[in-house]
Amino acid sequence: LTYVGLYLFLFKAQYRSKADSAALALSGTYSNTVLVGLPIILMALGEQAAAMVFMIITFHSAMLFFMTFLLAARHKNKVDIVKPLLLNPIVISISSGLILNVAGLKLPSLILESFSWLAKPAIPGALFILGASLVQ
């Protein structure tokens, strides 16, 4: 709802193009979900809530990206709208993880340990970058 409201405000009241309005609405709503919502939920509910949070982010990402591509599309070709959604790295990575989990496939411990090292500073780093960007 926030995305649609922001899109309509930018398009109607600010006289922006459809593409500009869609991109600005995405940037104004999506980053809040991932950069602010994810760390807060994980810190409040703990690691056991991570799977559900990432499922919500996957659905949210797919929905917002689809709406952005649909509203900003200059072409009426369905492939031009759906292709970027299917090739989105966030949607691909979380969907791949879900498929591997459901299939019962396990990654080697070396890879899991490497990902764990990369994951630990990700949330505090994202919050730091978000705060630093607000200074400007």
UniProtKB/TrEMBL annotation:
Tagged with keyword Transmembrane helix: yes
PANTHER family: AUXIN EFFLUX CARRIER FAMILY PROTEIN, TRANSPORTER AUXIN EFFLUX CARRIER EC FAMILY
Parts of the chain that traverse the membrane: 21-45, 51-73, 85-105, 117-135
Assigned keywords, A-Z: Membrane, Transmembrane, Transmembrane helix, Transport
UniProt organism field: Pseudoalteromonas phenolica
Designated name of the protein: Transporter
